[in-house]
Amino acid sequence: MENIREIKKEELLAEGKKFLDEGGKFVTAVCSDLNELLEVTYFFSLNSGTEMTGLRYKVAKDEEVDSLSRVTLATVLIENEMKELFGLKVKDLAIDYGGHLLLAQDSPVTPLLKAKKDVSKGES
Fold first, then answer.
1. H or E segment at 44?
2. What superfamily does domain 4-95 belong to in CATH?
3. Helices and strands counted in the chain (H then E)
4. Average pLDDT, consecutive stretches of 10 residues, N- to C-terminus, the chain (124 residues)
5. pTM
6. Phi/psi zone of residue 13: left (φ > 0), alpha (ψ -120 to 50 degrees), beta?
7. How wide is the angle at C-alpha 46 spanned by C-alphas 48 and 57, nearest 5°?
């Protein structure tokens, strides 16, 4: 997608707020496991849905990130989902489901996170 802009994780709240203040709507967010990093992209719709823009940042798996739900409640479900499925450490969620929005009590933890390969056993 050509309309994706790389940002620093610290810029998400300010940049997201700019889209919303200009009349844009939050659409969704996606998370990808890049082995040592997680890549998170938030998508916003502008001009009544005819233009889509993404804000993307990369973060180490042990780093905390701010929740955009402080700016718009529309991100609560997807941020809880990324937290549950990928282990994204989202702080200050407006509503935190504590790891049980989608997953049951006995479900695997972070099921979409890539398993670490044990290089000592010759795995690669």
1. strand 37-46
2. NADH:ubiquinone oxidoreductase Nqo5 subunit (3.30.460.80)
3. 2, 6
4. 91 97 96 97 88 96 97 97 97 95 91 71 50
5. 0.88
6. alpha
7. 150
